[in-house]
Design a protein that fits this description.
Two copies of one chain form a homodimer. Chain A folds into two domains: 188 residues, Rossmann fold, CATH 3.40.50.10440; 128 residues, Hypothetical Protein Tm841, Chain: A,domain 3. In chain A, 32% of the residues lie in helices and 24% in strands. Chain A contains eight helices and 14 strands. In chain A, helix 4 runs antiparallel to helix 5. The longest helix of chain A has 17 residues. Chain A is globular. Chains A and B meet through helix 1, helix 6, helix 7, strand 11 and strand 12 of A and helix 1, helix 6, helix 7, strand 11 and strand 12 of B.
């Protein structure tokens, strides 16, 4: 295992130290239980957004804490759900009196622990809504999921709902927007090479030099099929076809196209994928009105990509374009 | 070779297609000769910034074209200098009457070809200044360089000079700032694993499972020494020591710290490096006033990191903080 780490058990805590040192003024890191919060939270009268999940998907979620996006993020151990007390304490810390939205990726541990945290917060007098993101069209059930997995649409939901919350929309409205983003977003991913979990020390699975895995999850869970390596254009077709087959759209609809790197994928390759994906979208009559290209929801050092399409509407566009100032996503602020 | 590409010879052209499709409105791509330019260039009365170099270092330079940074970027073939006609045509296209600054990384081919382009542009009546970036403390001469190589400080120079040019500073002032940034910036990098150039098809060099290369260049040129793999903290010390030994600073000086990923390095590892680098800087009395953590100057799919320290002054800070709107770096706009 070749990694820039000190010890497998120190990865999460030391990365949090680094984030705190690098982005003081923007975020602060609370410990025992661990969570990252907006430096200026709680913001009075604003719905607070709390997300979280296993570590290893950076910059998601900690890199999205700040103005116009998340109020807090709760990091678990690598690929392991955070505990309910993390989400409970985070919810208490960032609640500005307008309630808290939990944005939860659909993995069994995350769902259960966020549910428990919501119960604790409600018992404490905090208004909580939860939205589960389950946008991965690759598989219906998986290693760690009943139903579809939550992947790329999570990033988009966090940005769009963050923009809406910043305008002081009420909790039910922000939660409704989050459900709409989830209902209109679809993703699928693939891997050229597996990731290596630090405390395991070897790749999660082995792919031969001429093989790839289509429909992979963000923890290296098996996908739809393992097939021979193909060209970037063919790979893009293999990702776009199931996404388009499942996306509720009609010709002329505006979409946001998000081409994501899995952690060890160079930017130049993501643009080669984007090129073909945009061409396929056009052929289907979709109008790509916004784009995001980069590594935003990753799987440690996995090499690969995922494509997310989100059918947009005017309000989503306004919220997407709104200023955001976080460690890993920023514009207009 | 496992890459998300269609054919080695198509990588650069297809990535340009993808960038153009993804960022229309912000940039446009001109072809034969190839360069990326600001969609709204030329900007009347503004000094135009032109950079370029071999491809494979994305997002540098094309990802930095836009408002507040570069006016044009000229991509060569992978790890190969662009040709003089690229820089000449780009300079003509973006010159807004206030002259053009060429920002050139110190590699023999780049230096010669930018010189020729500057001569052609001057003969065409365009005022051109050139600044060579040579901030890599690892080696004095290298495979492709007389003198030090140009690496991470290039990104910072492009941002700072872009901010200054946007305020309509004259050419001599912008060039002087670029020389000052270069004089006050120092970098050093390392690799855990080599990159694979598409048309070569195998890694540029081999590192054993327990080895790393310290002082590596951004094309996989040999560094200072190949040594046994160490912890992230020890690696950070090995990068920071030569940078600090060479940086002209006194206790209390403000610096920008840039921790860069080489292309296949997950964000979480960069923050572990940042943590230790910031601690070392503090111990030396440096005041880290700005940070940049991410993969901005890469070497295809190389795994590794580099650290750049730039001694800042008030004017640099103002220019760094100024709005920037490019495909890969944006804030305040």
């Amino acid at each position: 295992m070749k990694k820039l780490i000190n010890a497998p058990e120190a990865v999460v805590a030391e990365a949090l130290d680094g984030m705190e040192a690098a982005h003081a003024g923007l975020i602060k890191v609370c410990r025992a239980p661990d969570f990252i919060m907006r430096a200026d939270a709680p913001v009075a009268g604003k719905v607070a957004l709390v997300s979280g999940g296993g570590s290893g998907h950076e910059p998601m979620h900690g890199g999205f804490v700040g103005r116009g996006m998340l109020d807090a993020a709760c990091p678990g151990a690598v690929f392991t759900s955070p505990t309910p007390d993390q989400m409970f304490e985070a919810s208490k810390a960032v609640n500005g009196g307008a309630g808290v939205l939990h944005i939860v990726k659909n993995y069994t541990g995350d769902v259960l622990n966020f549910e428990m945290a919501a119960d604790l917060a409600r018992a404490d007098g905090i208004d909580v809504e939860s939205v589960i993101i389950d946008d991965d069209v690759a598989v219906e059930d998986s290693t760690w999921t009943a139903g579809r997995r939550g992947v790329g649409t999570t990033v988009l939901a966090e940005k769009i709902c963050g923009g809406l919350a910043e305008r002081k929309a009420p909790l039910t409205t922000v939660a409704e927007m989050c459900r709409r983003v989830n209902a209109q977003g679809r993703s699928m991913g693939m891997a050229l090479a597996a990731c290596t979990v630090p405390h395991v020390g070897k790749p999660s699975f082995e792919l031969a030099a001429d093989e790839m895995e289509i429909g992979i999850g963000i923890h290296g869970e098996p996908g739809r099929h393992r097939v021979k390596l193909e060209t970037a254009d063919r790979i893009t077709e293999m990702l776009m076809e199931p996404v388009l087959a499942d996306l509720p759209f009609k010709s002329g609809d505006p979409v946001l196209m998000f081409v994501n790197g899995m952690g060890a994928t160079p930017t130049v390759e993501l643009y080669i994928i984007y090129r073909k994906a945009a061409e396929i979208a056009r052929k289907h009559g979709l109008k790509v009105v916004r784009t995001l290209v980069g590594s935003y929801i990753t799987s440690l050092d996995m090499a690969g990509t995922s494509i997310t399409l989100l059918k947009m509407d005017e309000e989503m566009l306004t919220c997407w374009d709104a200023p955001v100032l976080t460690p890993s996503l920023r514009w207009g602020a």
